[in-house]
Every structure is written in C-alpha cells, then in structure tokens.
Amino acid sequence: MKSYSIAVVGAGAVGLSAALAFARDGFETVLIGGLDARRDGRTVALLNGSVQFLRALGVWPSLVSEAAPLETMRIIDDTGSLFRPPPVSFSSREIDLDAFGWNIENATLVERLAGAARSFDHLTILPQHATGFQASEDRGVLTLADGSEIEVNLAVAADGRNSRLRQIAGIEAQTWSYPQTALTAILAHDREHRETSTEFHTRNGPFTLVPLPGRRSSLVWVMSPKQAERLSKLDDEALALVIERQAQSLMGAMRIVGPRGVVPMTGLSVNRYGAPRLALVGEAAHVFPPIGAQGLNLGFRDVASLRDAVVDAFDDGRDPGTPETVRQYQRSRDLDVRLRTAAVDGLNRTLLTGLLPADLLRGAGLLALGKVGFLRRAVMREGVLPHMGAPRLMQDAAGA
C-alpha cells in the first residue's frame, strides 16, 4: 500500500490549488481526480488575496494574460423601487490596489493549474475516483475506484457539493435553494468596458457584466427559472439583443462569443469542516450563489488556511492529520464563511422581497457607501481580503 502525507480528492480549481500548495511545501502529496476542464461560459473574479495565493504557487504568470483587471465596481439600482439610490462606484485606487481582482474563464484557470500540477515535485496524480475512506488514530486509508488503497496522514475533500468523502465521514450539510436561476455567457461588445464591472440590481436578482480581455465581458444574470428557460431557447443574436437592452446599452451592441450556461441558484453549509484525518475545502464545505465573487475565492482561502494549519503542525513536530490540525483549520474558517454566507444570502433576499422596508434598508446602505468615504473603503478592503486572520500565502506572494 502506497503512503502519502496529503491526499487531495477532487481536481477542480480548489483541489488543484490544494495539491500545489502542499507539494510546494515539500509534503508528499497525491491528487485523486481527472484533469479536465469543460468550457461552460462561466468565469471567476479572482480577488486580490486569491491572486496573491496563485502568485505564491507560481501559477499567476501563466494566467495574467488571459485575465482582465477589475479596477472599478459599479452598482446600479434597477429594481423600480420607490427609494432608488443613485449609482455607486468603487475604485481599487481608494484602497491602494491596482485592481480589486482579475476576471478569467474558469476552464482556463483549471487548465493552467493542471498544467502546473503535471510538473510539480512531490506531487503524484491519480486520475481516479475515491470510493471509500477510513480513519484511525495515526493514519487514514482511501479506497480508489479500482479497488486499490493508499495511506495518508490527511485527506482533503475537494470533491464538490455532492462530496462523497463528506458523506462517508457523516458530516451534515444543510442545503437550500432560491427561486432563481443564473444565465451565464461570454459577450463581445462595441464599447470599451474600461476595466469596470457593472452590477444592476433587478427585482429578480443581480445582472452583472464583468470585464474580460479586449472588448469582452462575462455575464451572470440572475432571474426567475421561467425567464431563464425562455431566454435559454433564444438563438445567440436574439439573446444578445435582450442582454444589450437589460444593460441599458452601456457597452453598445453585443454578441455572444462563447458558451452559454444555466445554473440553478442553491446554497450549502456544513456543521463542521473536518473529521478524523479529513478536512473539507471549497464546495464540499460551502456553496454560494454566483453573487459577489465569493465562492471560489472562499475556496482558495480554505486551502491557504488549511495549509497554514498543516505547516504549523509540522513545525511543532506533529503530523498533518492530528485533531489539533483539523481544529485549527475549523477555527480559521468558521466565522469567515458564516459571515459571507449571511451577507450574500441577505443581499439576494432583499432584492427578491419587494417590501418597502427591505428596499429602504438596501437603498440606504448603498447611499451610505456612496457618500461616506471611510465606510466605503472599509467595505472594499473586507470584500477583497479580510486582513484579520488572512492566511499567510494571501498576505505575501513570497509565502511564509
């Protein structure tokens, strides 16, 4: 039976980054999962902390030419509310950043991470699925689809919202859904986006255009399931015209230039982030609707926090999978994830309610952000990366 220090199960962006992070620090690591990336029209806005993390892993130079900087974020109330605040813009320069983050196609990100993984020292790739896991006091044993087994100090579950390892460990997950669906697409447009992300708050949810390189943007349009079904049946030309009208022609004429997707709006949270010899990261631990660029960024923060706990254990002479390592990881993630879950859920529900008190509260908040400089800057800093308790690889590109 082969033995490894760390096993990462799941080869999406979060799983790949976890495997790279542990191998980078010299831990003998195995990545279990197939390296494939399907293009589905989805992009991810990598906030500043995630960029620092990818830079520390040595991957960012291969990504930067494929990504567009997000220098300005603009919010426009399009709910038709009686209390309608003026548009609010946030500039990264106000918090001394060149950009809040960078927007890139998810498939491109996975491809570059997979390319790095194939040539990393201390990293073995097994293109299989894990079907079982057992933990003892001193080791964990993973069973693979071909019946073989491997011993590990710590298994990292990065196997998504339907995580098999989470289920085996008996970790409860709370799930919920929204009466909404997100339509995603890649667009070309006649006017420059000027590195500005624009989010229209509509009564059915946000309509967001995020820059891509050139005169292109990615779209996340949250709407009712019936509307999503109707629009998804339109041809590219007709859909582009509907999108242009919803965007109030800010970008001029639009064309669909990439894959389209339809994503049901759901959420998931867990009551704990680990079990003996096991830690959950990414969507195995939390699922967000595609609002506020929180999902993958939180997943990367999971990985960087778990990496800190493992390194601290090694420095103290403990192996990576001890209960104290898992407890340290739990403490580092619990409050951060809960607060952001509540924030995204709360914003989305205030858009849906249509009640005047909720509109007043949301509108007053946007008005305050537009008028009160120190408040606006504090919110921007917290949104990009909370400094209190930030993982070390997100503080300094050189790592720690």
Report the C-alpha radius of gyration, rounded. 21 Å
State which percent range the strand residues make up.
25-35%
Instruction: Return residue spans where pLDDT drops below 50 for at least 5 consecutive residues.
Output: 352-364
**CATH fold title:** FAD/NAD(P)-binding domain
- Cα distance spanning the termini: 33 Å
- Number of helical segments? 12
The major pleated sheet works out as:
9 strands, mixed
Task: Kindly state the percentage of residues in helix.
Answer: 25-40%
CA-based shape: elongated
| CATH level-two architecture | 3-Layer(bba) Sandwich
Secondary structure category = alpha+beta
Number of domains: 1
What is the fourth-level CATH superfamily?
Answer: FAD/NAD(P)-binding domain
Count of DSSP strands? 20
Just give the CATH class: Alpha Beta
Mean model confidence by pLDDT? 87
Topology:
Blueprint lengths: L1 E8 L3 H12 L4 E4 L10 E5 H9 L3 H4 L4 E3 L1 E6 L10 E4 L9 E5 H12 L5 E4 L3 E6 L4 E5 L4 E9 L6 H5 L4 E17 L6 E7 L2 E8 L3 E8 L1 H8 L3 H11 L7 E3 L4 E10 L3 E2 L2 E3 L5 E2 L7 H21 L7 H31 L2 H16 L1 H12 L7 H4 L5
Parallel strand pairs: 1-2, 1-11, 2-8, 5-13, 11-19
Antiparallel strand pairs: 3-7, 4-7, 5-6, 9-10, 10-11, 12-15, 12-16, 12-17, 13-14, 14-15, 17-20, 18-19
Helix pairs in contact: 1-4, 1-8, 8-9, 10-11
Plain-language structure description:
The chain has a single domain, classed as FAD/NAD(P)-binding domain (3-Layer(bba) Sandwich). The strands form three sheets. Strands 5, 6, 12, 13, 14, 15, 16, 17 and 20 form a nine-stranded mixed β-sheet that branches. Strands 1, 2, 8, 9, 10, 11, 18 and 19 form an eight-stranded mixed β-sheet that branches. The chain is built from twelve helices and 20 strands. The radius of gyration is 21 Å and the shape is elongated. Helix 1 runs parallel beside helix 4 (106-117) and helix 10 (356-371) crosses helix 11 (373-384). Strand 1, helix 1 and strand 2 form a beta-alpha-beta unit. It has 400 residues and is of the alpha+beta class. It comes from Microvirga makkahensis. Pathway: Cofactor biosynthesis; ubiquinone biosynthesis. Its cofactor is FAD.
